[in-house]
């Protein structure tokens, strides 16, 4: 006769992961997040600085239109009737005039985006 083995031999039930396996996964996730986090922060700051570039471009075009209409550049955002907010979460916008000390008839009118956050750059664009 053929001897049959029991259908359900006693097996060790695997109830979950071991501590070593869990620590290994946590270490891998930590390494990956350490690599990815600086790149993510860089992209976020790049997007924030795009706001300044867009608003300065709008300010420059509005200044050109204002000059064509009035023969002089606007000295404030209010004069431009722009939809540029003077202050946002990331930047403070303003128009400033810079005069040449040697020749007072020559001056620059600049649209300025001053950063409110240390990690962002400030920008300006001038009309002459």
Give an account of the 3D structure.
The protein is α+β, with helices and mostly antiparallel strands and 128 residues long. 44% of the residues lie in helices and 18% in strands. It has a 3-stranded antiparallel sheet. A hairpin with a 7-residue loop joins β1 (91-99) and β2. The longest helix is centred in the middle third of the chain and has 52 residues, at 19-70. The chain is rod-shaped, with a radius of gyration of 32 Å. The mean pLDDT is 87.
In percent, how much strand structure appears in the residues? 15-25%
**Spatial extent as radius of gyration:** 32 Å
Order of strands across the main sheet: 1-2-3
Between the first and last Cα atoms, what is the distance in angstroms?
108 Å
Q: Strand-and-helix sequence, N→C? A: HHEEE
Beta strand count: 3
Structural class: alpha+beta
Task: Return residue spans where pLDDT drops below 50 for at least 5 consecutive residues.
Answer: none
């Amino acid at each position: 006769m053929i001897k049959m083995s029991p259908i359900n031999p006693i097996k060790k039930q695997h109830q979950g992961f071991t501590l070593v396996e869990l620590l290994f996964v946590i270490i891998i996730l930590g390494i990956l997040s350490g690599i990815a986090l600086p790149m993510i922060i860089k992209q976020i700051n790049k997007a924030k600085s795009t706001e300044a570039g867009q608003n300065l471009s709008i300010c420059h075009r509005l200044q050109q239109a204002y000059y064509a209409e009035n023969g002089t550049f606007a000295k404030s955002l209010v004069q431009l009737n722009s939809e540029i907010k003077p202050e946002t979460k990331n930047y403070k916008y303003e128009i400033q005039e810079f005069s040449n000390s040697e020749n007072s008839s020559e001056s620059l009118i600049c649209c300025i985006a001053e950063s409110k956050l240390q990690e962002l750059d400030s920008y300006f664009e001038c009309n002459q």
